[in-house]
Amino acid sequence: MKPDRRRLLLAQTILALSGAAAAQADVRMPKLFSDDMILQRDLATRIWGWADVGEKVTVNFAGQTRSATAGAQGTWEVQLAALPASAKGQDLVVLGRNALTFHNVLLGDIWVCGGQSNMEWTLGSCRAPEDIKNANFPLIRWIRVPNTAAESPQEDLPPNHQARWAVCEPGNAAGISAVGFYFARKLAQETGIPQGVLASNVGGTNIEKWIPQPAFAKEPSLAEMTQRMDAEVKNYSVAVAQQVPRLEKWLGDVKAALAAQGPIPPRPEFPIHPSLPGSPQGGNWSHLYYGMIHPLTKFGIKGALWYQGESNGSEADSYFVKKRALIGSWRQQWAQGDFPFYFVQLANFQKPSQDPAGGDGWAKLRQAQTKTLTLPHTGMAVAIDLANADNPDDIHPTNKLDVGERLALWSLAKDYGKKDLVYSGPLYQSMKTEGSTIRLTFDSVGSGLTAAAKTGLAPTAPTPQAKLQRFAIAGADQKWVWADAAIDGATVVVSSPQVPQPVAVRYAFTMNPVSANLYNKEGLPASPFRTDDW
Fold first, then answer.
1. Contact of 193 with 276, CB cutoff 8 Å
2. Of 161, 201, 287, 408, which has the fewest beta carbons less than 10 angstroms from its beta carbon?
3. pLDDT of 6
């Protein structure tokens, strides 16, 4: 688009907005509402929107009728009583001066699918043509939030947002988040409850972009970052104030030019908010939360799925602190208590290292991800065995089937009452030195520990006679060597003749622990761990 055309459209938009308050407007609903949508079951449901000040709005759904009057800001809201799951499509009708009807609305569970490109990765990119061909799942509905940066919390998605809820079928399944699809498919098949995939993610983004600014201030260890943000916002306010006279003059010149049908004068340069992309500060915080998460927070959900961390891959415990801030702030904004938050531990990536000490690449970040399990109602799908074997340098494993289904196991066990379901691979619990050996104990051993191998989409294959790999051991000198490791009941005993007095063990503590082979007999891999804090 030519610069003069852009300036003309901008000027016309400004003039239109300046007169909008005086004009009557139809009842308007958030962009999240459309035909084929899902509303969250078993939860008092907020229905909200905009209308003329003082206008009465009535909502009808599933035998319930609620009314509200638009307040001074033109906003209105009603609350429907909680309703059980229903696979029967119903109409949601909103009546004001005009009428809006949303058809084929189901009641089920809605999952916000957040993170970066591995959550954004679509089913069509997964080499899964049969899954697309057979994706006739009327119980699964999905919608994608458009990529939107904002410097302050937005109440709705962008006006030009054309996406809408879709019934999952072969004709559109290629566009759904693959992790969200496989997660929802397993839940729908196991429970018969409709599942909604609400995808809000952007490739290549760090976690800071998805956290509202006030949440950083609640974490003492992020004080320096918070102070920098505050200083940048203060400087921005000063810079904006300095531009106000020039903008006021420009608006006057625009009105005069439009009246005279003359050329639109160039718009003055305007400071970019420091949180936004393109700002001198780099736009590294909050703007995606404000544009892509905050508009969702009145919409009832079941929980969230999160696949992110690659863009924070050099971090260690600081990532846990930021993730705690993210989870806490999302739960606070939705005001639904500690809703489920399930996430993916990063997959193996790049060529494997033969250094027994490990610690390279994402090793420490994976430890921070594991630490997130200390937060209430969280769950982690381990993915260190799912990278593309033919291309370890591909940061996007195409096997999203196991990722989605491993996440679903947590939900089936924690949210849907599936008893005696093994939902996690072995998680390191404790160690005990026994002479020249160290004995390791684990949670989530299931029906027992085993050596196993995972190849592509094939089920995990037990290899009980195989030697356990990727265990390292060290003494007080902190010199690591590869160790002998053997399963003993529900424990693993680790030793090395080179370390007669061991004090610490590491397992799969490297960027690509490609040969790591400790699993439980249910086929779920052990998470990487270290017993030391060196």
1. no
2. 161
3. 42
Of residues 318, 315, 370, 321, the one with CA closest to residue 344? 370
Cα(87)–Cα(108) distance, integer angstroms: 8
Residue type, 251: L
Residues pairing with 49 in the sheet: 76
Q: How many domains does the chain have?
A: 2
Of 204, 223, 253, the domain-final residue: 204
As a whole number of angstroms, the distance between CA 472 and CA 484 comes to 8
CB atoms within 10 A of CB 18: 11
Q: Is residue 497 part of a domain?
A: yes
Within 13 Å and on the Cβ side, how many CA atoms surround 258? 17
Give yes or no for residue 398 having a pLDDT over 80. yes
Q: Is residue 229 part of a domain?
A: no
pLDDT digits 0-9 by tens, 254-283: 999 999 999 999 988 889 999 998 898 888
| Cα distance between residue 360 and residue 120, in whole Å | 26
Beta partners for residue 141, in sequence order: 167, 196
CATH number of 187's domain: 2.60.40.10
Q: Is residue 390 in some structural domain?
A: yes
- What tokens does 273 get? 């908010």
Number of helices (H), then strands (E), belonging to the chain: the values are 10, 24
Type of residue at 136:
N
Q: Which of 145, 180, 204 is the last residue of a domain?
A: 204
Asked if residues 316 and 368 have their Cβ atoms less than 8 Å apart, the reply is yes
Q: For position 467, what pLDDT does the model report?
A: 97
Structural domain of 50: 25-204
Q: Is 411 within the bounds of a domain? A: yes
Dist. CA 91–CA 473, nearest whole Å: 63
pLDDT attached to residue 74: 96
CB burial readout 79-114, b (16+ within 10 A) else e: ebeebebbeeebebebbbeeebebebbbbbbbbbbb
Residue 325 CB neighbours (<10 A): 22
Contact 265, 253 (CB under 8 A): yes
